[in-house]
Amino acid sequence: MTDAKRNKEKSGEISRRAFLGTSAGAAAASLLGKSEGAAAQTAPPAVRATLPGQSAEAADRDIGNARPPVAVRAVQRPGSDLMVQVLRDLEIEYVAANPAASFEGLQESIINYGDTPNKMPKFISALHEESSVDMAHGYAKAEGRPMAVLLHGTLGLMHSSMAIYQAYQYQTPILLIAGRDDTNFLRSQSANDIAGIVRSITKWDAHPRTLAGALDAIQEGYRQAITPPCGPALVVLDTELQKEEAGDMQVPAYVPPQITGISTGEVRAVAKALVAARNPRIAVGKLRTARGVSDAVELAELVGASTSTRATLVPMSFPQRHPLCGPGSDTDYDYTLGLETGGIQAAIIGPHRRTLEGRDVTGIGYGFIREPPTPLWGPYAPPKPSHNDMHADAEASLPAIIAEVHKIMSSSMSNAVAVRSKQHAAANHEAAVAALKKALEDRRRGWHGSPISLARLYAELWILIKDEDWCLASPTQFSSGHNRVLWDHNKPYSHLGMHGAGGIGYCIGASTGAALAAKHRDRIVINIQCDGDLNMVPGALWTAAHYRLPMLVVMHNNRAWHQELMYAQYMAGVRGRGGDRAHIGTTLRDPFISYAKMGAAYGVESEGPISDPSKLFAALKRGVDTVKQGRPYLIDVLTQPR
Amino acid sequence: MKTLHLILVLIFMQQARAQDLGGNAEEGERLYYDFACYSCHGYNATMRVPLVGDASGIMNSEQLFLTYLRLRADQNPVNPKNSMPNYAVSTLSDEQAVDIYAYLRSLNDDPPELADNPVMQEMLDAAKARGKGNEK
Ligand SMILES: Cc1ncc(C[n+]2csc(CCOP(=O)(O)OP(=O)(O)O)c2C)c(N)n1
Ligand SMILES: [Mg+2]
To answer: Which residues are within 5 Å of ligand 2 (an ion), measured at CB?
Structure first.
């Protein structure tokens, strides 16, 4: 790294003068009560107010008067440098965190260690730990691999817990690292077993006691996260290990996990059935990575199978507009193979989180690890496993199936496949055009209405992005999911699906994470953002602005927690009273919130509110153009409730 | 339940709109908003469950509208399969309901035809063109 570059980064790319702002400088200086030049050297220490039970040192440190003793860092090769090297070897692109002392050693290594400091991983500032984990959730859904998150002891884990829970429910791989600091100031920020806070909602955790153990644990955490059932894995790193002198300790070589597919016998049976079938079909659910998607495409093309997809609902499924995707020319399928989707003739379904029962230490039965204690909608009935189900990871099974099909396929069969594929393509195309035509007819209604029809919003946005490489990162059910019929979901990351457990606040963070993934991949991220969701953790907007992330935020501003308004309305009806009072506690009125101002406050170029539908397209175009230049953009749109 | 609906619909279809009591549309607009009818039907009654124009059979006559509303209330106030909330007489009087009906009748929706909507037309053209590559 050149000195110039290091110096630029050292200054945070913003000089002190710029920090104070040319015009704001004087005001800021007067705030400090000093002239700008003098302020730094002579500013009096901030006034210390000690809390009951708080040591003077702790209070000093909290307000920034104290620095950790320099001697602690006076090591040649801190343990945390090796930790960063492990992350680098794992090709972890980003580490999101809200800064904290319990991982100060590791944080310092991330930003300073090596020839290319703060790169692989790059430190990403998050304004809330829930955002950190949501970012990692969105990133991993788009890329099929984890990024990392640093969390501060008990507090960071608690702040992030809902986001961890949702990633757990969605089986999204995330490498969580919690700093643990027993030796210092506020003891309440540490505990013996901090991982216990989230044990029931993580896949795996470890609290290594040696530096060598810590390096192994980071690698194992990564392996655990990406091995199905995928999920968040947590490594607790004591502050001492981060600061320890590593001497000549070597970083262990990473060994990737062996993810097992179906047995050789099963491979043969599946390949044989696919090749022998007159009209085979492949039903594709959510695979793990883009490689799985391309293998599924290869297999379908190889055997000329029509396919179904979940790409309009989840990431990593079959391309929606692939010529083979659709009902096909003949719906009398004589052999259907499911890939991560059950309830059909022969399904390959990977291990799911239900196999993690041992980690449900609380006995709460989170998310159907066990049967819930009380029936929700009638008696609980787990999906009926078919006796034909093969319990193994579908993606890991595909290469062997493809190889076997190649082996047994004769040239006459290949000809039949070619004919069949052509017929499927024609039928699927016709079906898709007919479905779109019908969908558009249904969506003409209210086209000129104000507030703006969500169908119009989706349609106009589609025109602007259809030739771009895009990723729809927001859940869409609250905006009526018009993308499902109006858009083409052809990439593994076209749509990142739902929250995981319906937890509001997920969307803005996950979209920001998806935009981190998109940034160096010439991709743009679309986030149709509900107002209630944004208000939970809006600080992610600053992260998007700070890192110049290509995220278009189009507000679905219905000025309500509208889903809940409908519930309240229904409840009042059931009880036969107060049908005109459902807005109480469910609406965001009086005052209305200005999302354009909110965006601007966080440094995101923003406009709106737009309620005139004739003004929408131009605004969306400004948004898409800005995002294509690598900057986030927010458009506040007053929308119909659904 | 479905059959009962149908029978009632048929009976009341007979009753001409001439029998309409004639509600107050202005008052209806306020009630439509206060009672959060917009939450499913949209602010202009054009959305998810549209009522505008001839979008819904229950808008055929005031009587039918009222009957539907009360049927929903009396027959099965808790019915997860039916997301229309219950508006019992104690909550929303017939008079108020008729005001809402009048308001709904005063609304109209005049969206462009598919062929006259450049956005929709472009979408459709793109979808049609996509098939071109498949023919080879
Ligand atoms: C963390 C959390 N708190 C509360 C809820 C309950 N809840 C479900 S939907 C919803 C409303 C969300 O409002 P918004 O995101 O604006 O979507 P809208 O329904 O208005 O389209 C709420 C509060 C939840 N799901 N998650
Ligand atoms: Mg809302």
So the answer is: A 530-532, 558, 560, 562
A573 CB neighbours in chain B (<8 A) are: 73, 77, 85-88, 91
How many domains is chain B built from?
Answer: 1
Class for domain A264-434, per CATH?
alpha beta
DSSP per position, A449-484:
-SSBPHHHHHHHHHHHHTTS-EEE-S--GGGTTTHH
pLDDT at position A345 is 80
User: Is residue B92 a part of any domain in this protein?
Assistant: yes
Nearest to A512 by CA among A638, A610, A616, A599: A599
Give me the domain span that covers residue B114: 22-129
What is the Cα–Cα distance from A629 to A291, expressed in whole angstroms?
29
Q: Where is A636: in which H helix or E strand?
A: strand A633-637
Q: Which residues of A touch B27 (CB under 8 A)?
A: none
How big is the CA angle at A430 (ends A428 and A435), to the nearest 5 degrees?
90
Measured in degrees and rounded to the nearest 5, phi and psi for residue A232 equal -70, 135
In words, the CATH class of domain A79-243 is alpha beta
Residue of B nearest to A377 (CA): B80
pLDDT at A381: 46
A526, A460 contact by CB (below 8 A) = no
* Interface pTM, i.e. ipTM: 0.87
* Residues A241/A182, Cβ–Cβ less than 8 Å: no
For ligand 1, is residue A585 a contact (CB within 6 Å)? no
pLDDT value for A375: 43
A446/B113 touch (CB, cutoff 8 Å), yes or no: no
DSSP lists the bridge partners of residue A95 as A123, A148
In a domain, B105, yes or no: yes
Q: pLDDT tens digits for A17-36?
A: 555 554 433 333 333 333 33
Sign of the CA dihedral with A361 first, then A364, A369, and A374 last = positive
**Chain B interface mutation, best of A321, A479, A580, A621, highest count of B Cβ atoms under 10 Å:** A580
Q: Which of residues 34-73 of B touch A (CB under 8 A)?
A: 34-36, 38-40, 42-44, 46-48, 50, 52, 55, 73
Which atom of ligand 1 sits closest to the CA of residue A504?
26
Cβ of residue A435 closer than 8 Å to a chain B Cβ:
no
CA of A134 to the centre of ligand 1 (A): 16
- The reply to whether B14 touches chain A by the CB within 8 Å rule is no
Q: Taking residues B48-64, what's their average pLDDT? A: 90
What's the CATH number of domain A443-638, 3.40.50.970, 3.40.50.2000, 3.10.290.10, 3.40.50.720?
3.40.50.970
Ligand 1 neighbour A532 (Cβ under 6 A)? yes
Shortest-distance Cα residue to atom 4 of ligand 1: A504
Contact indicator for A583, A621 with CB cutoff of 8 Å? no
Q: Give the ligand whose atoms come closest to the C-alpha of residue A536.
A: 1
Say how many C-beta atoms besides its own lie within 10 A of residue A400's C-beta.
18
**Is there an atom of ligand 1 within 6 Å of A512 CB?**
no
pLDDT in tens, A169-227: 999 999 999 999 988 768 889 999 999 999 999 999 999 999 999 999 999 999 999 99
Please list the ranges in chain A whose pLDDT falls under 50: 1, 22-48, 372-383
Q: Between A433, A448, A566, which is nearest B39 by CB? A: A566
> What are the pLDDT digits (tens) for A439-469?
999 999 999 999 999 999 999 999 999 999 9
Strand runs labelled E in A113-160? 122-125, 148-152
The pLDDT value recorded for residue B134 is 44
Burial of A280 (0-12, 13-18, 19+ CB in 10 A): buried
